[in-house]
Amino acid sequence: MLEYERLKRDRRRLLALTGLTRKEFEALHQAFSAVYATEYSEDKTAAGRGRKRQRGGGRKGQLPTTEQKLLFSLVYQKTYPLQTVLGELFGLSQSRANRWIQRLLPILKQALAELGVLPSRMPAEFAEQERSRGETAALIIDGTDRRRQRPKNQAKQALHYSGKQKTHSDKNVVVVNAKTKRVGYLSQTYAGKIHDKKIVDTEPICYPPDTILYKDTGSQGYEPQVHQTHQPKKSRAKVR
């Protein structure tokens, strides 16, 4: 079973499972534990009802500490396993794993928001947000595909089938700072069949005017108002 007390001593495993170093995990844990304490106070149960006995009474759960709760949330977000698999990793049944996911993810989102590291979801406000952070040098725009269960409806199957990935997926476009590797903008979620260029045309992202924007062929023809855009060219095959 995954336990933070053991995992924190292994930098590579912690980074692989959560995407965070120990220092980053502990910084996020401070915000996470503060939000959790606010949501589930001493006089209320996890369901929001008033307590009939002192906090800590009754059966002990498999996620007894806020570190373990945060680890559970981050492993789910980073690796996106089946809930049955996630339950096996943390000693939970599938139904209880689902319950914890529904309870903890809003708290994780609020903690990230309080730390100011959530990506912008408003294309018109992205330029101002980047200026306030002073990170407007070089940005990378790219599309991401996330596998999903095949829809039963045939029309939805066709819409979510990505010919490039050969699977059913959901798609987002992200804008990443080339130096800090921080995701500054995250688009809304679209069906996997939709092309990257169509998404960026649907969501007209505003960039700081001095931006150097790197893009791939998925955004060919996308020329926003920036200082300069770069797109790699495919080299010709060598003739022997």
Estimate the strand proportion: 5-15%
Could you estimate the helical fraction of the residues in percent? 40-55%
Reported for the largest beta sheet, the result is:
7 strands, mixed
Give the averaged pLDDT, no decimals.
88
Overall radius of gyration = 21 Å
According to DSSP, the number of beta strands is 7
Low-confidence region ranges: none
What's the end-to-end separation, in Å? 55 Å
SSE ordering: HHHHHHHEHEEEEHEE
Walkthrough of the structure:
The chain is an alpha/beta fold. Helix content is 40%, strand content 15%. It contains 9 helices and 7 strands. Strands 1, 2, 3, 4, 5, 6 and 7 form a 7-stranded mixed sheet that branches. Helix 3 packs across helix 6 and helix 4 crosses helix 6. The longest helix is centred in the middle third of the chain and has 22 residues. The N and C termini lie far apart (55 Å). The mean pLDDT is 88.
Topology:
Layout: H1 4-7, H2 11-18, H3 22-39, H4 66-79, H5 83-90, H6 94-115, H7 126-133, E1 138-147, H8 154-160, E2 161-162, E3 167-177, E4 183-186, E5 190-191, H9 196-202, E6 212-214, E7 228-230
Parallel strand pairs: 1-6, 6-7
Antiparallel strand pairs: 1-3, 2-3, 3-4, 3-5
Helix pairs in contact: 3-6, 4-6, 5-6
